[in-house]
């Protein structure tokens, strides 16, 4: 997970404090930004044979995380 996704989640989270954990539980790779893929820069953007992720996977994951945080926050406010 590139840090841009974590920063977005922290900035847009409805909670006062949000901590994003990445590179945990045995994951063996990064999830680059679309910009990194466009630059074709670095080993992080080389899609391995086992990877089935699209170039917008990080954006989708961050958006889903934010949707979940919004739902959790709404539950705590009722």
Structure description:
This protein has three helices and no strands. It has 78 residues and is mostly helical. It has one domain (1-22, 30-62).
Summarize the structure.
This protein is an all-alpha fold. It has three helices and no strands.
The global form is elongated
Query: In this structure, how is the largest beta sheet organized?
Result: none
Report low-confidence residues grouped into runs of 5 or more.
Answer: none
Oligomer: single chain
Mean pLDDT: 85
What is the radius of gyration? 14 Å
Strand content: under 5%
CA(first)-CA(last) distance = 33 Å
Question: What is the domain total for the residues?
Answer: 1
Write the layout of secondary structure elements.
Elements: H1 3-12, H2 34-39, H3 57-77
List keywords for this structure.
about 80 residues, mainly alpha
């Amino acid at each position: 997970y590139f840090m841009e996704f974590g920063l977005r989640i922290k900035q847009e989270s409805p909670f006062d404090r949000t901590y994003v954990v990445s590179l945990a539980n045995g994951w063996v790779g990064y999830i680059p930004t679309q910009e990194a893929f466009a630059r074709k820069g670095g080993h992080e953007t080389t899609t391995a044979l086992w990877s089935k992720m699209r170039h917008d996977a990080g954006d989708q994951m961050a958006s889903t995380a934010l949707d979940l945080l919004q739902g959790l926050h709404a539950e705590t406010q009722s």
